[in-house]
Amino acid sequence: MKAEKIKIDSEFIRLQDLLKLGGATDTGGHAKLAIQDGEVKVNGEICTMRGKKMRAGDVAEFKDLSLIVE
Fold this sequence. Notes:
Layout lengths: L1 E5 L6 E2 H7 L6 H9 L3 E3 L2 E2 L6 E2 L4 E4 L2 E5 L1
Parallel strand pairs: 1-7
Antiparallel strand pairs: 2-5, 3-4, 3-6, 6-7
Helix pairs in contact: 1-2
């Protein structure tokens, strides 16, 4: 699995925005569908909340990509 670190300048980033920013999905709409379909894991557990607040240290996994929030 490929791991990518995503640095944020705010307290948090929403899960769907993280997937788009990290290049896991091409669009926010695709990110939304992937999350709703249970295809995304947050910190090792399936997450279906697209507005989930991701903070430093959180990890999102989608397909063969792991996005680590810094």
